[in-house]
Amino acid sequence: MYESFIQWVDPDYFIDYLVCSIYLSNGDMANQKYWHTTDNAIRWRAIFYDFDYAMGFNDGSVRRNLMKNFFSMDGTPTASDTLYTYIPAALVQNKAWRERFIERYVELTVTTFAPERATRILRELQDEMASEMPRHIARWKRPASMAKWESDVNHIQKWMEERPAYALENLRKYFGLKQSYIDELVAKYTPAE
């Protein structure tokens, strides 16, 4: 069954999409889109789309754990329906896939989502967008003001600084992992200074 799945779906990209959705605590997880080339040279991939309810903007919590939402055969209730997550729920039952997911989750937590790196990118984007925000606010009335936008950017930075510890603890608890195993993976992927 897994062999059939990976003929059509890019498994590494799918793992990265799940890790990002869970790590960033995307509260609008039902809004998903996928694409592939018609010749399937590029297999099906999720599109990173509609993450405006991520990073605490959905529930304010840096502690939130969406693993149970993505890995439940019962699905996750949404505002209008139930989001069924049969594919990730089935994949997580596969030991090799689960181990790959866990390792990649830790790797992205300590590299891609490292607070220093994430903050640097956030501030670069803030600098790039600052001159356009007054026009955006005038047109869309959201956020309500430059002060509100700056407050939201600061919220994102604080969230990114606090998230790694909670994300790793959520992973450890959900999969019943030993802290020593998490520590080994963190050491393996922490960039040398």
What is the number of helices? 9
Please bin the fraction of helical residues: 55-70%
- The end-to-end distance, rounded to whole angstroms, is 43 Å
Radius of gyration: 18 Å
Question: Would you count the extended β strands for me?
Answer: 4
Strand order of the largest sheet: 1-2
- Tell me about the largest β-sheet: 2 strands, antiparallel
How would you describe what is shown here?
The protein is mainly alpha-helical. The chain has helices spanning 2-8, 11-23, 67-70, 86-91, 95-110, 115-129, 133-140, 146-175, 179-189; strands at residues 33-35, 45-47, 76-77, 82-83. The protein has a two-stranded antiparallel sheet. A two-stranded antiparallel sheet has the order 3-4. The radius of gyration is 18 Å and the shape is globular.
In short:
The protein is built from 9 helices and 4 strands.
